[in-house]
Structure formats: C-alpha cells, structure tokens
Amino acid sequence: MSIFGGSSFGLPRTKPLSSKRAHVVSVLDIGSTKVVCIIARLTPRRESAVLPGRTHNVEVIGLGHQRSHGIKSGVIADLDAVENVVRLAVDAAERMAGLTVESLIVNVSAGRIGSDVYTASIDLGGQEVEAGDLRKVLIAAGQQSQGNDRAVLHSLPTGFSLDGERGIRDPLGMYGDVLGVDMHVVTAERAALRNLELCINRAHLTVEGVVATPYASGLAALVDDEVELGCAAIDMGGGMTTISVFAQGKLIHTDAIGIGGHHVTTDLARGLSTRIEDAERLKVVHGSAVANGADDREVVSVPPIGEDDRDQPTQVSKALLTRIISARIEETLEMLRDRIQRSGFSPVVGKRVVLTGGACQLTGMPEAARRILARNVRIGRPMGVSGLPAAAKGPAFSTAVGLTIYPQMADQETHAGQGGLFSPFGNGNSRFARMGQWLKESF
C-alpha cells in the first residue's frame, strides 16, 4: 500500500539522530537538471559556537550525479526515465562508498508546496506548563492542518505564548493561564508525492523521509547569524525557484515558482533559433544577467538549428544575448520580490538574501538581484560538511548537501497524525521503521 495513498499511514518521518552514535545517511536530490545521490557518515560532535544546534559532523563518503531526464519544472513527466537516472546516480554513490543503499531521504519541489501558520491555545488554569500540556497544544495546532488532498512535509513550532506574551521559546516549567503556539506547516499535494514514491520504489529503494527542497537548500547555504536574525534563501534550480525564510533558528515560510534556469535556455533557443544544448552552452560561456558597455562590440557565433552542412553559424552581438537573458531574470526576480512582500515576512527577511542553486551562477546574477530585490545578496554554497569533491562544492549541490544535514533537525518537528505526535513513521511495523532498525544495527 502506498505511504501517501490512504489514511492508515502518514508520510515517512526521518528519525531524530542519537547524539551519542554515528549514523550513515543516504539522500537523493531529484531536480529538473540533475539527480544527485549522497551517502554521508554522521559522527557525534561537541556543541560549538560554529553551527550551534548541529549534533553531528557530516562527511560525504559516496556521491553520484546524473543529468536529469523525465522531470519538468520539478514534476515527474516520465517514470521510466526518472527511474533509470535514479538507479545510475545511486549506483555511482554506492560504488564510491562501498555500501548498498536501501532507503533514502528525498526532496520534493513539486506538488505546489504550501506554507501556513496555525495557532492554537489551551487553558492551564494558572498551573505549571508540563510536557503533557505542550503535547496537547501542539496536537491542537497540528490537527488544523490535516487535509485529504495534501500531506504534511514539516510541522515546526515557531514560538509559544503564555497569557498573550509571545516569543517564548520553551515554556516548560513556566506558570500561566493560557498556553498558545504558532505552528508552521509545510504541505504538498499527495499525488505528486505518490509519483515520487513510485519512482523510488521502481528502482528497488524505499523512502525514509521527505524534505521540502527550500528547507534543505537553506540548511546548507545559510550561516548561523542569518538563520537566527532572519534571512531568505532563494534556490534557483533548472525548472523551479524556491524561497525559504528562516528566523530565530527555524524555518518560518516557504514558497516556490515554476521558473528556473532552463527557461532562460529555452528563451535563448527560441530567440536565436538554435538547439537547446547550444543555447545552454551560450548561456554558460557568454551569458550575463546585466548589460555591459562592451556587449555591442562583442560578437557571438550561434550554431544553426538544422542538420544541413551548408547552414552556417550566425553572428549576433553579445548585447542581444544579454537582452534575452536579462528579460527572463528580471521577470523571475520581480516575481520573487512580490512573493516575499505578499508573504508578510518581508520585515523578517530584512536586508539579507542568499542565492543558491545552479542557476544563480549566471554572470551578473548577484548584481541583478541586489537591484531588483533591494537587499544585500550573496551567493550561498553548501557548508558544514566534509569530503565533498571539488565539483560538488558549488551552489548547484546545496539541496543535496542540505538533505544530509536535515536528520539533525528532525527532532525540532512535531507530527500529530495517525502515527501520533513525535512519531517518525506512520506505523511502527512499516518497512521504514524496519529500515531504521536495520541501519541502527548495521552501522
């Protein structure tokens, strides 16, 4: 039976890590441009001022990545093609690590990711806040988010209140009459998740946990002060661009738009009448998001679209290239600016924005983003892990690296579904629970 299909199972939940033991974690980043599998060893670490809250050091011991096929704007369009790419990526990571993967933590970008805050409160009668009270108020908030067509990906308490006083991080042991909580709930459409599970299962693998792409990329690309003081991470992928807003150490908002780097490539292919692969090369080698005074004087050779040997490459000015690219980039950045404004979290984001994802590497992207978003912008590369090959240290690998970091954050989440609050899996006898037990015994 599908884990996403009926009411008897919730989503598989990544088990919180034991702070005293080493773990091996396998993750899969399924994107529109590439599919990445990482196998990482997590070893306990001491609390330190650098990356506080991280309980483990993450060391990459296996990495496999393949060009994506069968994915369009984050949505699975061809099951066979995606299954084949997943097999190849996992196989490469397994060979490098010398391990066999059976279950994975996977990301999800499709399914119209939703982000809502639910508020609930309970009466304490002037008594001390106990664990049972916390459980009760979290369940009350979580139950508001239950929907038949949508599945809960993340359920994060962002703040508690006592007698109307907000901003309390941990009310346990405090006294009051009314205990309240604000719960940030990230959801996705069940149909998209079923297709994701089907792809993984067809490759003879199981889903150990599901993480929203914006959450994963933010975990990898943001530094402590940004996560604490408030910051937006914008992950610019091939087919999707996602937004995550962090504050006070927690994810407080997510959003996504179905535009990415591939749309820039398609615009170039149409505007210059050339093939997609040639347009991609022109974008990477000569493309820029901002105009340069010398662009009119520079000429770029555009290969013809046909197979006829008599067709000669056409010569166009670099300025034309830049005009086509900047039009799409400006449209995308304006949409992102408006989404942040409409979310109500613009004051929380303040002046801090981090761009990550493969498409943010386009020349001039930070300058274009600073002008349109009217904020300080930096390029975010994956941080906080060791053992990454040089080729995987760029922004394009932020989501995959974030998935390896995520298990350390799993204990921040609460899930009041059929499996019960704090239950990592929908059913203790499910294959996911057994897989977790196997990992415990084997590593």
Automatic annotation (TrEMBL):
GO process annotations (BP): cell division
Alphabetical list of Gene3D superfamilies matching this protein: 3.30.1490.110, 3.30.420.40
InterPro entries given in the database record: ATPase_NBD (IPR043129), Cell_div_FtsA (IPR020823), FtsA/MreB (IPR050696), SHS2_FtsA (IPR003494)
Origin superkingdom: Bacteria
SUPFAM superfamilies (UniProt xref): Actin-like ATPase domain (SSF53067)
Residues covered by the SHS2 domain: 25-221
Localization per Swiss-Prot or TrEMBL: Cell membrane
Keyword Kinase in annotation: no
UniProt xrefs under CDD domains: ASKHA_NBD_FtsA (cd24048)
Keywords tagged on the record: Cell cycle, Cell division, Cell membrane, Membrane, Plasmid
Bilayer topology term: Peripheral membrane protein
Family membership noted in the UniProt record: Belongs to the FtsA/MreB family.
Function: Cell division protein that is involved in the assembly of the Z ring. May serve as a membrane anchor for the Z ring.
Protein name: Cell division protein FtsA
Organism name: Peteryoungia algae
